[in-house]
Amino acid sequence: AVYMCEVERHHPQVFQNQDKESFSRLEDPLPAAEGVTYELCAGIVDKPDLSLEEIACGEILEECGYRVPVTHLRRITSYRSGVGVTGSRQTLFYAEVTDQMRTGEGGGQPEEGELIEVVEVPLEESMKFAYDETLPKTMGVIFSFMWFHDNIAPKLPKK
């Protein structure tokens, strides 16, 4: 969706008087990177026999490569996203990971269209990152950085 919004912004003529049957190929396509965004680790709640925490731990392993015990998750809050389209309920958790918890590469499942790279943002650059409008990110990312800055960062040892 992000990529298609960029296509429309750069090539508005492509979408004029078009329907699904007559939609033409873009002669000068944008680089695929135009559709890449910074997002939180997430997943669909589609396993009724698992708790939200168990699903979250599975997504952390699949997408980021860290094995996090359920007891290491801290529930932050639930909120609605995509209110104009899906009205999805999302629950945000916080977990700290160490190098010793890394048991795989992560990256998600390419067969499901996932192309995931784990990105580390230094604490001293985190709020600049959160507010940088040139870096495409979800509101959940911005909120989580603000939450971390208010609730975790003040308790960290000073360098």
UniProtKB/TrEMBL annotation:
Its EC number is 3.6.1.45. Keywords: Cytoplasm, Hydrolase, Magnesium. GO terms for biological process: nucleoside phosphate metabolic process; ribose phosphate metabolic process. The keyword Mitochondrion does not apply. Coiled coil: none annotated. It comes from the Eukaryota. SUPFAM superfamilies: Nudix (SSF55811). Its cofactor is Mg(2+). GO terms for cellular component: cytoplasm. It is found in: Cytoplasm. It catalyses: UDP-sugar + H2O = UMP + alpha-D-aldose 1-phosphate. GO terms for molecular function: UDP-sugar diphosphatase activity. The keyword Phosphoprotein does not apply. Its main location: cytoplasm. Hydrolyzes UDP-glucose to glucose 1-phosphate and UMP and ADP-ribose to ribose 5-phosphate and AMP. The physiological substrate is probably UDP-glucose. Poor activity on other substrates such as ADP-glucose, CDP-glucose, GDP-glucose and GDP-mannose. Belongs to the Nudix hydrolase family. Homodimer. This is Uridine diphosphate glucose pyrophosphatase NUDT14.
